[in-house]
Amino acid sequence: MDPFISISHQRSFQALLAVSFIYIFVIYQMPFFLDQIVFQPSSFSSPSSSSSSSSSSHSSSSSSSSLSSSRKLITDALPLSLPLKEEPLIVSTPFRPSKVSFRDAPLASAAPTPSLPQRQNHRHALQVSGLAFRDISVTGAFSELHMVAKAAWKAGRKVFSELEAMKPEEERDDKRSPKNQTTEKCPHSIVMSGTEFLENDKIVVLPCGLTLGSHITLVARPYKAHPEYDPKISVPVEGDQATMVSQFMMELQGLKTVDGEEPPRILHFNPRLKGDWSGKPAIELNTCYRMQWGSAQRCEGWKARADEESVDGLVKCEKWIRDDNSRSEESKTTWWLNRLIGRKEKVPIDWPYPFMEEKLFVLTLSAGLEGYHVNVDGRHVTSFPYRTGFVLEDATGLSLNGDIDLHSVFAGSLPTTHPSFSPKGHLEMLSQWQAAPLPEGPIDLFIGILSAGNHFAERMAVRKSWMQIVAKSPNMVARFFVAMHGRKEINVELKREAEFFNDIVIVPFMDSYDLVVMKTVAICEYGVHAVSAKYIMKCDDDTFVKADSVMSKVKKVRNGGRSLYVGNINYYHKPLRHGKWAVTYEEWPEEDYPPYANGPGYILSSDIAHFIVSEFERHTLRLFKMEDVSMGMWIDQFNATKPVQYVHDLKFCQFGCINGYLTAHYQSPRQMLCMWERVKLGKVQCCNVRR
Predict the structure, then answer these.
(1) Average pLDDT, whole number, for the chain?
(2) How many CA atoms are closer than 13 Å to the CA of 286, on its beta-carbon side?
(3) List of E strands, 109-198
(4) Between 669 and 71, residue with greater pLDDT
(5) What pLDDT does residue 342 have?
């Protein structure tokens, strides 16, 4: 019995071994055997068989089809090789299907697997100023500014190096960081008491600005007039006599449109109870952008003429009694008597000035279709039309200052949706706004535009407006010059902007107003070394430049081979010794500045720029905190060795805009776009007020 079992086990083992051998042959050898039959028939057939292949094409095709099906079944049964972790699986993007079915196409003619489509890279290399700030051994009045510049340059290089080394994924992570996300709520209404108002630094924050129909009501009381010896709203009185003044200012401010500078006054409402230069009570309304005031609208008690422009059907200025007699009471009495006796004709009534010292009033400011309307104690007092560049959604703060005691304030019908107040939201990443590469040969005019890191909206407005003239000219080039900002997220977005638009030159130092002069030197360096320009122009990012007219102006100058300095020239200008822009005697010991062109826009010939760069590289260039005065100082020094022709033209407008301008200063982004639309119509006109 045992031998029989042993023989049976041996036979079973042999049978299992045979089956395993057949299975291995079928799995690993049959596909290659079939491949030889399908793809290399000549190796398995005789010469005679090849001659008869054409006569049996149908049978050959059917057999090939069956073999392909068999091969597919066998191949599907094979185990798939899984990719290792070190070898990431690459999956091609699906392509449009071919009109020819892949199922019907012969395997031998199958197209190779297409390569992965390459993603277009819109980034350009960062342009960095070639200016190199080294140790400069300067003594005397100018040494302090050089030390400040040295420290700013050292800190800026470090910030720029970190920014340059940042990877794209790190930029995205920084943008998504919670500290860079705004979660401010936008209530439909806001109520604030006088005490809360004082605790909030006399500001009512309106997170989403205003919209059509929004209204602000405040209850307040003007203080009694007090003596002032240097009032800003009246003519100074000789001697020690004081002027009695009582006034207050209510302003709508664009708190979120700027960063680190004075917010624009979208509406300035200034009742002057006493102390106005006219000697009578008055109300002034105005706008202000970057310390540049527009044309004031004054209400002095005279009713607006019938042919004057109205605002939503209301006059700009209502009439009030211009003296202190009792005609108002008499007029009211007459009006009531006429009503009692049934007279139907309209009897006019005169009202006093709407504000009185130490008397409570209720003021309502409302946003209409065409402008703002101010009602006091239920009576319309004045209306102010909207001005180009100042819009409702930007009015994100209400301030109240002066001789006034606020009891309460209520803002209603406010927008609840949050528009994009981030300056980065103004960037339009479209190829049509990208700058062309620098030309290989020399050019006629290079325009360097001073800008701050966070001025995204200003730069975008320039690209979409007057820079289009430059882009279409083969003889002009314009670039922005920007230093490092104190906030990392601003620098990250600036890098992204610079890489896309290719029109920003980074000057790697920490930005500050006193060091704007360094950007001016960088403009000169770029103009003579990078683009080899015949003339170099410097302007600001809030300056609208009629570039073609500027070039024509320069070409018309008959300078007889002399060096050229063109702009709105100041002669015998004296330093301010007091106030915000004060200059000490240590900073400038002389009583007069040398002749200099106002900073918003001027032009110099390339030999002057060469001189400035050469002096800087030799460490002998004196720096002064006012860049336009610095330029005048350098040119005055250059003029001692080679004659310079000074060309003065008021059309390089310093304070705002005049029709027929060459440059217009203090233009907001919206004003820039408005002016560009007029230029395209052939009109060199301003957009300061509504037309």
Answers:
(1) 78
(2) 14
(3) 127-128, 190-193
(4) 669
(5) 61
146: helix, strand or coil = helix
pLDDT band at 603 (very low <50, low <70, confident <90, very high): very high
Domain of residue 299, CATH code: 2.60.120.200
Give the residue among 290, 250, 255, 288 at the shortest CA–CA distance from 270: 250
pLDDT above 70 covers a percentage of the chain that reads 70
Which amino acid is residue 53, in one-letter code? S
Q: Cβ-count burial of 38 within 10 angstroms (0-12 exposed, 13-18 middle, 19+ buried)?
A: middle
| Residues 656 and 647: beta-carbon distance below 8 Å | no
Least confident of 77-86, 370-379, 631-640: 77-86
Residue labelled with tokens 């083969």: 474
Q: DSSP state, 441?
A: S
Return the pLDDT at 101: 32
Are 426 and 669 in contact by the 8 Å Cβ rule? The answer is: yes
**Burial class (CB within 10 angstroms; exposed 0-12, middle 13-18, buried 19+) of 417:** exposed
Taking Cα atoms as reference points, which of 216, 571, 598, 554 lies closest to residue 412?
Answer: 216
User: Could you tell me if 314 and 440 lie in one domain?
Assistant: no
Whether 222 and 289 share a structural domain: yes
Is pLDDT above 80 for 671?
Answer: yes
pLDDT at 175 (0 to 100)? 53
What does the pLDDT read at residue 234? 64
φ, ψ (nearest 5 deg) of residue 13: -65, -40
Q: What is the CATH number of the domain that holds 481?
A: 3.90.550
Q: Is 651 helix (H, G, I), strand (E, B) or coil?
A: coil
**Token couple for 557:** 């100058």
Interatomic CA distance for residues 566 and 602, integer angstroms: 6
Coil, strand or helix: which one is 220? Answer: strand
- For 311, the domain range is 190-322+350-412
Please indicate, yes or no, if residue 508 is contained in any of the structural domains: yes
Residue 277: strand, helix, or coil:
coil
Shared domain for 564 and 507, answered yes or no, is yes
Q: 406 forms bridges with which residues in the sheet? A: 220
428-479: per-residue pLDDT in tens? 889 999 999 999 899 999 999 999 998 898 999 999 999 999 999 999 999 9
Distances (CA, A) of 216 to 305, 372, 554: 28, 11, 51
Residue 326 has what pLDDT? 46
- Are the C-beta atoms of residues 646 and 569 closer than 8 Å to each other? yes
By the 10 Å C-beta count (0-12 exposed, 13-18 middle, 19+ buried), 267 is classed as: buried
- From the list 421, 541, 428, 532, the residue with the least C-alpha distance to 481 is 541
Mean pLDDT within 248-262: 84
Residue 140 has pLDDT above 70, yes or no: no
| Token pair recorded at residue 579 | 């106030």
* 57 vs 54: CA distance, rounded Å: 5
Distance CA 223, CA 214 (A): 28
What's the number of CA atoms in the CB half-sphere (13 Å) around residue 391? 13
Q: Establish if 439 belongs to a structural domain.
A: yes
Collapsing DSSP to helix, strand or coil, 513 comes out as helix
Per the structure block, which two tokens stand in for 234? 């009246």
* pLDDT digit string, tens, across residues 26-76: 555 554 444 444 334 333 333 333 333 333 344 444 444 443 433 333 333
Look at residue 527 and tell me if it is in a domain. yes
Which has the closest alpha carbon to 525: 564, 481, 475?
Answer: 481
Task: Pick the closest to residue 651 from 573, 569, 568 (CA basis).
Answer: 568
